[in-house]
Design brief:
heterodimer, A: 471 residues, alpha/beta, Spore Coat Polysaccharide Biosynthesis Protein SpsA, Chain A, 12 strands, 54% helix, disordered C terminus, B: Leucine-rich Repeat Variant
Chain lengths: 471, 355
């Protein structure tokens, strides 16, 4: 009798939690639809206006053991369509031939940079400037053990009012900077802007540029495409219009340099330096009572590799979740802080309750349901009904992201691509979602136990074979 | 409610939820497929209209024979694409071709559609409409554009300003000058371009009275773009501002950047002792433009400043100083005792080397 009453109580708790979670997601999707439509409303006319007003940008790209990819990556960066920019590659004490590859390809010469230390990083060993590309510099520094440390060194060398920080292994859209600078031009209070990151697995890359978009054959990568669409088009595009964005992806972010310096730059100890910086910016600007905006452009500005094996995926997801825990814990003052707006009053509690603790609730729910069913406290009918509603809502949210994708950029060329992605939206609920929830719970336990992390490594799916095709 | 009823209720809720979610998901997939087909249709339509209208627009723009223009008005739902093509042609053209394109626009109803969209349309259509009306240069549209000049949306207001200048720059300037002071979101480059398009003969008086009358806090934002659009006027205003009794460091710093008169050097050199770093930095820049080898010592002292940017600009000014030679620079470096100043000079000299 007690067990039944307990089970009923648990049912209500889970149902309420589940409803709150899905209602929030649906609301975010609704906001995202309006946001995307509004963004696209300016159309080509707006593009033409902005092209005249571009603000100079410093591109900071930290590189650690990137010998295989760094040359085409830099070549692609130098060809971006933008009026005025500089490229700063930060060699973070690579143990391979990253620096040598750069020296050879871009005729690097030692440059007596009067290096300003504005944010902390490990010591710089030297600065080089390209003899062939005057807007390319390489900062060679001691390994700091994190992307944040390397990014700070780049930030110290940056000259322009805005800076981009990304990954050396990402492929940028040639117009990425033009698109991401738009919020800074529209609203002078903009301090940061993120953009949609897409998965490059299965696509063809030539000379560091995306040549053809197609779906990957790898099952795991396919599942992640739906996840990315949901996270970027549904989630971030939903938070941005209400200034509640708590994360700008480390793969692509454009920032107001002085504001980031004022916030102390990236925190080298942070596990997820990208989210950590945004949460600290919210905290600092709320404390200062300064009007600000952290924006997001839905354009597919950046393409990145997704893990194609379970081990790498698990490592990545655990790192992301530890990063989330670390950032929320470090900047806990942002919660319900005066002046923090949607970020402090809505997004931070949402991230804590549903993103950070969600996997714990989810895994607990699975365990209780299985036990209850096994001990006859829950009928098979009820078990299936709960599973159906969970899967149904999950599929609906993913399908809404597919609709958003079609309303905006429809980058996947064939209608069959859409059907495959819809199939993945169903399939991801049957094992994949549970697996990632389990990894995230493990990550939370690791974080509570204080385990450390360093630069992540990624098995790359595309550079080597495709680059061989390059002339 | 007994426990079995409650349980049944939850079960029913779950089943209903699952059904609604499944239907919702299928509806969204259906919606996505329909949207995709619509997008493909629109892309094909746009291509077809471009192929149809580009030859007509080219013929009209280039035909100077005075032959009557014959073109069928596009359907209402094709109008936006045709207007976009027409505006792109107008953007690229100068001279009599634009007049003939305007005649074509009136004949096929582009002007009527533009006025309609300016009143009610999405942002993209309204911007297209403003561009179109600007190209049409019809004084009857003045009031319509003037209202948009005061619109909350910065983009609409900026385009309205550009269109008003196209119609009558002289008449437009007083209204635009007021906006220049208020529109913080208009970037300096854009403002400079706008003023260049209007011409200095038209902008000079309204801008002079604007800058000398507005609140001092706004001057630092306006002076730099004025320096790009009308350097002579900017320098003249800067001189007046520097000679004012009350010296706001922000205004002094902005004025130093646009100064063009070397005769002011004796007046500005003492600013090296300013407590404001922006003033010291901009003084270094001004000395680089206006000074000569006599300013070498002053720049060397600024190279020892506690702030990186002041040292950088001072070194840059020193390297580019009139009358400066490699031998003189080497000699200056040799006698530098301040390590930071020496590092900065090396840095700037390396930057100045051809890549």
């Amino acid at each position: 009798m007690i067990a039944v009453a307990f089970l009923e109580g648990v049912q209500w708790v889970f149902l309420t939690y589940f409803l709150l979670l899905n209602v929030t997601y649906l609301a975010l999707t609704g906001i995202a639809v309006f946001g995307v439509r509004r963004y696209l409303g300016g159309g080509n006319a707006a593009e033409r206006v902005y092209a005249r007003l571009e603000i100079p940008i410093s591109l900071i790209v930290p590189a650690y053991n990137e010998e295989a990819t760094i040359v085409p990556a830099v070549r692609a960066l130098l060809q971006l369509r933008y009026q005025q920019f500089e490229v700063i590659i930060v060699n973070d004490g690579s143990r391979d031939g990253t620096l040598a590859a750069l020296q050879k390809e871009f005729a690097l010469q030692p440059f007596p940079e009067a290096y300003r230390i504005q944010v902390r990083s490990k010591p710089v060993r030297g600065v080089y400037r390209s003899a062939t590309h005057p807007n390319l510099r390489v900062v060679d520094k001691e390994n700091g053990g994190s992307k944040a440390d390397a990014s700070n060194a780049g930030l110290n060398a940056a000259r322009y009012p805005l800076f981009y920080c990304g990954d050396a292994d990402c492929v940028l859209d040639p117009d990425a900077l033009r698109r991401a600078v738009r919020p800074f031009l529209e609203d002078p209070h903009t301090v940061a802007c993120g953009g949609t990151v897409r998965i490059i697995n299965g696509c063809r890359v030539r000379g560091g540029f995306l040549e053809r978009v197609s779906l990957p054959r790898n099952f795991l990568a396919l599942l992640q495409i739906v996840e990315y669409l949901r996270a970027f088009l549904g989630g971030r595009m939903g938070w941005a219009p209400i200034n509640g964005l708590l994360i700008v992806s480390g793969a692509f972010g454009l920032f107001h340099r002085q504001t980031v310096i004022d916030a102390g730059g990236y925190r080298p100890e942070a596990i997820g330096e990208d989210m950590d910086l945004i949460v600290r910016l919210h905290r600092m600007l709320a404390e200062r009572r300064q009007r600000y905006r952290i924006a997001f452009v839905p354009d597919p500005v950046c393409w990145t590799d997704a893990p194609e094996d379970l081990a790498t995926l698990a490592k990545q997801r655990k790192r992301w979740h530890r990063g989330l825990a670390d950032s929320l814990s470090y900047s806990r003052k942002v919660f319900f802080a005066r002046g923090s707006g949607a970020a402090g009053w809505l997004a931070a509690p949402f991230f804590l309750l549903f993103e950070l603790l969600g996997p714990v609730v989810e895994v607990t729910g699975y365990v209780i349901m299985v036990f209850a069913w096994a001990f006859g406290l829950l009928s098979l009918e009820s078990f299936l009904a709960f599973a159906a509603v969970a899967v149904g809502l999950g599929v609906m949210l993913s399908a809404s992201s597919l609709l958003l994708e079609e309303l905006s950029f429809h980058v996947y060329p064939r209608a069959s691509d859409l059907l495959i992605l819809f199939l993945m939206a169903i399939v991801e609920n049957l094992g994949y979602r549970q697996l990632t929830a389990f990894w995230r719970v493990q990550a939370l336990i690791d974080w509570l136990r204080g385990r450390e992390v360093a630069w992540g490594t990624m098995t790359r799916s595309r550079w080597q074979p495709d680059e061989k095709q390059s002339p | 409610m007994d426990s079995s009823t409650a349980s049944d209720f939850v079960l029913l809720l779950a089943l209903r939820g699952a059904t609604i979610a499944a239907l919702g998901a299928v509806a969204m997939l259906g919606g996505a497929l329909i949207v995709r087909r619509l997008a493909q249709y629109r892309a094909r339509l746009k291509q077809r209209l471009a192929e149809q209208w580009r030859p007509i627009l080219t013929r009209v723009a280039l035909d100077e024979s005075g032959a009557p223009i014959v073109a069928t008005p596009p359907r209402a739902r094709h109008m936006a694409h045709v207007m976009e093509e027409w505006s792109a042609f107008q953007d690229a053209l100068r001279g009599s071709g634009t007049t003939r394109l305007n005649a074509l626009a009136r004949q096929v109803g582009i002007d009527v559609a533009a006025r309609r969209w300016l009143r009610r349309g999405n942002l993209g259509l309204r911007i297209l409409a403003i561009r179109t009306i600007g190209h049409l240069r019809d004084p009857a549209d003045w009031q319509l554009l003037q209202q948009r000049l005061f619109a909350p949306n910065a983009l609409l207001a900026f385009y309205a300003a550009a269109a008003l200048i196209q119609i009558d720059a002289q008449r437009a300037m007083p209204g635009i000058a007021m906006q220049l002071a208020d529109r913080e979101e208009w970037p300096g480059e854009a403002i400079a371009g706008l003023l260049k398009e209007a011409g200095t003969h038209v902008t000079r008086d309204p801008i002079r009275s604007l800058i000398l009358s507005i609140a001092p806090a706004r001057i630092p934002r306006l002076l730099p773009w004025l320096g790009r659009a009308d350097p002579i006027l900017a320098s003249e205003i800067a001189t007046q501002l520097l000679r004012r009794e009350t010296r706001d460091p922000r205004i002094v710093a902005a004025a130093l950047l646009v100064l063009q008169d070397p005769q002011l050097l004796p007046e500005i050199r003492p600013l090296a002792a300013s407590t404001d770093p922006e003033v010291r930095k901009n003084l270094a820049i001004a000395l680089g433009h206006l000074g000569d080898v006599h300013d070498q010592e002053l720049l060397v002292s600024l190279m020892g400043d506690s702030l990186w940017w002041v040292r950088y600009r001072a070194a840059e000014a020193l390297v580019n100083l009139r009358g400066m030679s490699t031998a003189l620079l080497d000699a200056t470096r040799a006698r530098l005792t301040d390590r930071y100043a020496r590092d900065m000079l090396d840095h700037v000299r390396a930057e100045a080397l051809p890549a």
